[in-house]
Design a protein that fits this description.
Length: 241
Protein backbone atom coordinates (compact mmCIF):
# COMPACT_ATOMS: atom_id res chain seq x y z
CA UNK A 1 0.00 0.00 0.00
CA UNK A 2 1.64 3.19 -1.12
CA UNK A 3 2.60 5.88 1.33
CA UNK A 4 3.98 9.02 -0.27
CA UNK A 5 6.70 10.49 1.95
CA UNK A 6 7.95 14.04 1.64
CA UNK A 7 11.01 15.21 3.55
CA UNK A 8 10.63 18.87 4.53
CA UNK A 9 13.76 20.78 5.55
CA UNK A 10 13.08 23.13 8.49
CA UNK A 11 15.24 25.50 10.54
CA UNK A 12 18.97 24.88 10.03
CA UNK A 13 19.12 21.07 9.85
CA UNK A 14 15.77 19.67 11.06
CA UNK A 15 13.37 17.57 9.05
CA UNK A 16 9.63 17.36 9.24
CA UNK A 17 7.82 14.75 7.15
CA UNK A 18 4.49 14.87 5.40
CA UNK A 19 3.14 11.41 4.58
CA UNK A 20 0.05 10.62 2.54
CA UNK A 21 -1.80 7.32 2.38
CA UNK A 22 -2.48 7.54 -1.32
CA UNK A 23 -5.51 5.20 -1.26
CA UNK A 24 -7.50 7.38 1.12
CA UNK A 25 -5.70 10.73 0.82
CA UNK A 26 -5.17 10.89 4.59
CA UNK A 27 -2.12 12.90 5.59
CA UNK A 28 0.07 13.05 8.67
CA UNK A 29 2.89 15.41 9.51
CA UNK A 30 5.69 14.08 11.68
CA UNK A 31 7.33 16.74 13.89
CA UNK A 32 6.78 20.45 13.49
CA UNK A 33 10.04 22.43 13.76
CA UNK A 34 8.57 25.29 11.71
CA UNK A 35 5.05 25.63 10.30
CA UNK A 36 5.91 27.69 7.21
CA UNK A 37 7.71 25.07 5.07
CA UNK A 38 5.20 22.43 6.16
CA UNK A 39 2.21 24.55 5.16
CA UNK A 40 3.92 25.39 1.89
CA UNK A 41 4.41 21.68 1.15
CA UNK A 42 0.82 20.76 2.04
CA UNK A 43 -0.52 23.57 -0.14
CA UNK A 44 1.76 22.63 -3.04
CA UNK A 45 0.50 19.02 -2.91
CA UNK A 46 -3.11 20.03 -2.28
CA UNK A 47 -3.07 17.86 0.83
CA UNK A 48 -5.18 18.24 3.94
CA UNK A 49 -3.96 17.24 7.38
CA UNK A 50 -5.43 14.45 9.51
CA UNK A 51 -2.79 13.87 12.18
CA UNK A 52 0.24 15.56 13.68
CA UNK A 53 2.71 13.05 15.13
CA UNK A 54 5.36 14.29 17.57
CA UNK A 55 8.49 12.24 18.34
CA UNK A 56 9.67 14.13 21.43
CA UNK A 57 9.36 17.32 23.41
CA UNK A 58 12.43 19.26 22.26
CA UNK A 59 11.63 22.71 20.95
CA UNK A 60 13.17 22.09 17.52
CA UNK A 61 10.50 19.39 16.95
CA UNK A 62 7.43 21.28 18.18
CA UNK A 63 8.16 25.00 17.70
CA UNK A 64 5.73 25.36 14.78
CA UNK A 65 2.82 23.46 16.34
CA UNK A 66 0.71 26.45 17.32
CA UNK A 67 1.04 28.14 13.93
CA UNK A 68 0.39 24.90 12.05
CA UNK A 69 -2.73 24.17 14.07
CA UNK A 70 -4.00 27.70 13.64
CA UNK A 71 -3.75 27.23 9.87
CA UNK A 72 -5.03 23.61 9.65
CA UNK A 73 -6.23 21.93 12.79
CA UNK A 74 -5.52 18.24 13.31
CA UNK A 75 -5.15 16.11 16.44
CA UNK A 76 -1.65 16.05 17.93
CA UNK A 77 -0.31 12.60 18.85
CA UNK A 78 2.72 12.08 21.09
CA UNK A 79 4.12 10.09 23.97
CA UNK A 80 1.76 9.60 26.87
CA UNK A 81 4.84 10.05 29.09
CA UNK A 82 5.25 13.59 27.72
CA UNK A 83 1.69 14.77 28.26
CA UNK A 84 2.61 16.52 31.51
CA UNK A 85 5.13 18.79 29.78
CA UNK A 86 3.56 18.97 26.31
CA UNK A 87 0.08 20.41 26.79
CA UNK A 88 -0.29 20.47 22.98
CA UNK A 89 -0.63 16.67 22.92
CA UNK A 90 -4.21 15.51 22.50
CA UNK A 91 -3.63 11.78 22.15
CA UNK A 92 -0.97 10.06 24.27
CA UNK A 93 0.55 6.86 22.91
CA UNK A 94 2.92 4.27 24.35
CA UNK A 95 4.93 1.19 23.40
CA UNK A 96 2.87 -1.26 21.38
CA UNK A 97 0.04 1.12 20.54
CA UNK A 98 -1.27 0.80 17.02
CA UNK A 99 -3.44 3.27 15.16
CA UNK A 100 -4.31 3.98 11.55
CA UNK A 101 -3.63 6.71 9.04
CA UNK A 102 -6.15 5.89 6.32
CA UNK A 103 -5.30 2.33 5.31
CA UNK A 104 -1.84 2.49 6.86
CA UNK A 105 -1.04 0.92 10.18
CA UNK A 106 1.09 3.04 12.51
CA UNK A 107 2.95 1.26 15.33
CA UNK A 108 4.41 3.12 18.29
CA UNK A 109 7.87 2.32 19.65
CA UNK A 110 9.17 3.90 22.84
CA UNK A 111 12.79 4.73 22.10
CA UNK A 112 14.02 6.46 25.24
CA UNK A 113 17.59 7.68 25.66
CA UNK A 114 17.71 11.06 23.91
CA UNK A 115 14.70 11.97 26.05
CA UNK A 116 12.28 10.09 28.27
CA UNK A 117 9.04 9.97 26.33
CA UNK A 118 10.64 9.73 22.90
CA UNK A 119 8.64 7.66 20.43
CA UNK A 120 9.23 6.39 16.90
CA UNK A 121 6.43 5.78 14.40
CA UNK A 122 6.61 2.66 12.27
CA UNK A 123 4.47 2.22 9.14
CA UNK A 124 4.85 -1.53 8.44
CA UNK A 125 3.04 -1.63 5.07
CA UNK A 126 5.25 1.18 3.82
CA UNK A 127 8.45 -0.09 5.48
CA UNK A 128 9.00 3.36 6.93
CA UNK A 129 10.27 4.28 10.38
CA UNK A 130 10.26 7.86 11.68
CA UNK A 131 12.83 7.95 14.44
CA UNK A 132 13.20 11.62 15.45
CA UNK A 133 16.41 11.92 17.47
CA UNK A 134 16.72 8.26 18.52
CA UNK A 135 18.26 6.19 15.73
CA UNK A 136 19.54 8.70 13.18
CA UNK A 137 20.92 8.10 9.72
CA UNK A 138 24.55 7.06 10.43
CA UNK A 139 24.18 8.10 14.07
CA UNK A 140 21.99 8.38 17.12
CA UNK A 141 20.76 11.19 19.33
CA UNK A 142 22.70 12.51 22.29
CA UNK A 143 21.80 11.21 25.73
CA UNK A 144 19.99 14.09 27.41
CA UNK A 145 17.51 12.29 29.63
CA UNK A 146 18.60 8.67 29.46
CA UNK A 147 21.72 6.62 29.95
CA UNK A 148 23.62 4.57 27.40
CA UNK A 149 21.92 1.37 28.45
CA UNK A 150 18.48 2.88 27.80
CA UNK A 151 19.46 4.11 24.32
CA UNK A 152 21.11 0.79 23.50
CA UNK A 153 17.90 -1.01 24.46
CA UNK A 154 15.92 1.35 22.21
CA UNK A 155 18.28 0.73 19.29
CA UNK A 156 18.21 -3.06 19.74
CA UNK A 157 14.41 -2.97 19.59
CA UNK A 158 14.54 -1.06 16.31
CA UNK A 159 17.14 -3.47 14.92
CA UNK A 160 14.53 -6.23 15.10
CA UNK A 161 12.47 -4.54 12.39
CA UNK A 162 12.79 -5.87 8.81
CA UNK A 163 16.14 -5.00 7.19
CA UNK A 164 14.39 -3.20 4.33
CA UNK A 165 12.83 -0.70 6.78
CA UNK A 166 13.59 2.85 5.70
CA UNK A 167 14.88 5.28 8.32
CA UNK A 168 13.72 8.89 8.44
CA UNK A 169 15.32 10.83 11.28
CA UNK A 170 14.90 14.30 12.71
CA UNK A 171 18.06 15.98 11.41
CA UNK A 172 20.45 16.09 8.47
CA UNK A 173 23.56 15.15 10.43
CA UNK A 174 24.60 12.36 8.08
CA UNK A 175 27.82 13.81 6.62
CA UNK A 176 29.21 14.64 10.06
CA UNK A 177 28.03 11.27 11.37
CA UNK A 178 29.81 9.50 8.51
CA UNK A 179 33.04 11.31 9.30
CA UNK A 180 32.84 10.12 12.88
CA UNK A 181 31.88 6.60 11.79
CA UNK A 182 35.00 6.40 9.63
CA UNK A 183 37.14 7.43 12.59
CA UNK A 184 35.71 4.49 14.56
CA UNK A 185 35.74 1.94 11.77
CA UNK A 186 38.23 3.04 9.07
CA UNK A 187 38.50 -0.40 7.39
CA UNK A 188 34.74 -0.91 6.90
CA UNK A 189 34.29 -1.19 3.12
CA UNK A 190 30.53 -0.61 3.19
CA UNK A 191 31.13 2.49 5.27
CA UNK A 192 33.84 3.85 2.99
CA UNK A 193 31.56 3.45 -0.03
CA UNK A 194 28.61 4.90 1.78
CA UNK A 195 30.56 7.96 2.93
CA UNK A 196 31.44 8.63 -0.69
CA UNK A 197 27.77 8.37 -1.74
CA UNK A 198 26.70 10.62 1.12
CA UNK A 199 29.09 13.37 0.13
CA UNK A 200 27.83 13.13 -3.46
CA UNK A 201 24.21 13.37 -2.27
CA UNK A 202 24.98 16.38 -0.08
CA UNK A 203 26.94 18.06 -2.88
CA UNK A 204 23.84 17.76 -5.08
CA UNK A 205 21.75 19.24 -2.25
CA UNK A 206 19.84 15.97 -1.71
CA UNK A 207 18.79 14.79 1.73
CA UNK A 208 20.10 11.45 2.96
CA UNK A 209 16.92 10.16 4.55
CA UNK A 210 15.28 6.86 3.64
CA UNK A 211 18.40 4.84 4.37
CA UNK A 212 17.62 1.18 5.11
CA UNK A 213 18.00 -0.55 8.44
CA UNK A 214 20.26 -3.11 6.70
CA UNK A 215 22.58 -0.32 5.57
CA UNK A 216 22.52 1.24 9.03
CA UNK A 217 23.38 -2.09 10.62
CA UNK A 218 26.37 -2.40 8.28
CA UNK A 219 27.69 1.16 8.69
CA UNK A 220 26.23 2.96 11.73
CA UNK A 221 28.84 2.71 14.52
CA UNK A 222 26.18 2.87 17.22
CA UNK A 223 24.34 -0.15 15.83
CA UNK A 224 27.64 -1.96 15.24
CA UNK A 225 28.60 -1.48 18.92
CA UNK A 226 27.14 -4.88 19.81
CA UNK A 227 26.48 -4.24 23.50
CA UNK A 228 25.60 -1.45 25.93
CA UNK A 229 29.17 -0.95 27.22
CA UNK A 230 30.66 -0.56 23.75
CA UNK A 231 27.75 1.68 22.79
CA UNK A 232 28.42 3.91 25.83
CA UNK A 233 32.06 4.22 24.82
CA UNK A 234 31.24 5.16 21.22
CA UNK A 235 28.59 7.65 22.36
CA UNK A 236 31.21 9.33 24.61
CA UNK A 237 33.70 9.51 21.76
CA UNK A 238 31.07 11.09 19.51
CA UNK A 239 30.22 13.71 22.14
CA UNK A 240 33.88 14.76 22.14
CA UNK A 241 34.46 14.42 18.36
ZN1 LIG B 1 15.88 16.37 20.25
FE1 LIG C 1 16.28 17.54 17.46
Amino acid sequence: MPLEILTIPCLSDNYAYAVCDTETGEVAVIDVPDATPILRTLAFKGWGLNQILITHHHDDHIAGLETLKAAIDAPVVGAKADMHRLPQLELGVEQGDVFALGNQTVCVYEVYGHTVGHVAYYFPEANALFTGDSLMVMGCGRLFEGDAETMWRSLTTLMELPPETRIYSGHEYTAANAKFALSVDPENKALIERTQRISEMRARGDDTMGSTLALEMATNPFLLAGNAEAFADIRKRKDAF
